[in-house]
Amino acid sequence: MKNQIKKFILGAACFMVIAGGSTVAGHQSAKAATNAAVSKQAVTASSTSAQKKAAIIAYAKSLKGKVKYKFGVNNPSKLIFDCSSFTKYVFAKQGISLKWGTALQSKQGVYVAKSNLQPGDLIFLSVSTPGKINHVGIYIGNGQFIHNTIGSKFNGILISKLSDYSKRYITARRVG
Question: Which keywords appear in this protein's UniProt record, sorted alphabetically (predicted)?
Fold first, then answer.
């Protein structure tokens, strides 16, 4: 009788290990499938975001020579914008809502260090009052950004080197 009990306990223990092992393996398989699905969603979201940012940059570039700068103006029908109404207009074409005004836009999205800039990030500069955000552009990569501005011989969309604005650079934000 003692022998039969030992065999029963040993058999039950082996069954538990085998059943438990398949349950653990099943759980691990389910977990791996879930992780793969989450990773796929993250890649899809990332590529969708990257596609939006590429479309934003392409659209901004397509407006070169068509847009005029005028301080305090947001007139999409005539393509007359200040710097922040320009970014607002361009991002809206990809379904990303920005507020009008550099101070307001500089609080949207998440902070990005200058060393981590990616194409499509908003960059904020000081162009008149030192240290005060009063200009915005869109980082396009390779140390360049596109912005709507005015100069002595220029009015409209311009692609500039970020390094030319190093003393005026204040911060950057990633939106959308």
Answer: Hydrolase, Protease, Signal, Thiol protease
